[in-house]
Design a protein that fits this description.
Blueprint: H1 2-27, H2 34-51, E1 54-59, E2 68-72, H3 78-86, E3 90-94, H4 103-109, E4 113-115, H5 120-133, E5 141-144, H6 164-170, E6 174-183, H7 201-210, E7 214-220, H8 231-247
Helix pairs in contact: 1-2, 1-4, 2-3, 5-6
């Protein structure tokens, strides 16, 4: 009963935090420059994790600026918040998220590029748009989840190679990052935040709120250029690197 009481308390605080985020987006973002937006987004994401009682541990060096394509495994709807808390970046995400109440508004304000995954033509459009944003003087960090869906966090699903073409076309480096959720006290893998199979957003959120103190560990690899690799080979190498960091 006490655990559920505190979960409702945290839920109320998260709701107010979302509303405040919407207010900031509508009130200030239209007149703010990109670096001001990035700073506020990172602070908002860090506060979100604190309200959810999730500690953030970072191994390696998050990117400070780009151009760079950040490649991560995908466990939860929380992955976007976690990565935003660690470094300034923009995401490539499925178009459905842009239609979610509140979350869609916030992700659009963060500069997310939306893709219709079932459409080959739309994938080509997004790859071209990504390549433009990864131009040498852009300074932009784009983040993708090339598994194309979420997993339980114990293994990494095969990477789709299409979006790696943007980094090849722009001659931009790729940096890998492994995302792992664990119980803070024991260090054991946690699936509380997972969003897979028949999970609903509300169900995943409630498990997160009622779970013991959690920690999310981000392990960053080093930035690498293609070095003559095609997109399939580069995606396979990135997959192996992320899988290796999860097991380390």
């Amino acid at each position: 009963m006490t655990r559920h009481f505190f979960a409702f308390f945290k839920l109320a605080r998260v709701g107010l935090h979302l509303i405040h985020g919407l207010w900031v987006v509508n009130r200030h973002f239209p007149r703010w420059q990109d670096h001001q937006k990035a700073k506020r987004i990172q602070a908002w994401a860090q506060s979100s994790l604190a309200l959810l009682s999730i500690d953030l541990k970072v191994n390696g060096n998050p990117p400070g600026n780009g151009p760079l394509l950040l490649v991560a495994n995908h466990v939860s709807w929380l992955d976007i918040v976690v990565l935003l808390a660690s470094c300034p970046c923009r995401f490539v995400s499925k178009s459905e998220i842009g239609q979610w109440p509140v979350v869609g508004t916030l992700t659009r304000a963060a500069g997310t590029l939306f893709i219709t995954r079932s459409s080959r033509r739309d994938a080509l459009r997004v790859v071209h748009q990504m390549a433009e944003k990864l131009h040498a003087d852009s300074g932009m960090v784009l983040a993708i989840f090339p598994e194309g869906t979420t997993s339980n966090g114990l293994q990494v699903l095969p990477f789709h190679a299409n979006l790696f073409q943007a980094a090849i076309s722009a001659n931009a480096p790729v940096q890998t990052v492994a995302v792992r959720f664990e119980e803070t006290a024991s260090g054991r893998h946690s699936q509380a935040a997972c969003y897979i199979d028949d999970d609903t957003f509300l169900g995943s959120l409630w498990r997160t709120l009622t779970a013991p103190q959690q920690r999310v560990v981000l392990s960053f690899g080093s930035a690498q250029h293609a070095g003559g690799r095609n997109r399939q080979d580069w995606a396979a190498d990135a997959h192996a690197e992320v899988a290796g960091m999860l097991k380390a």
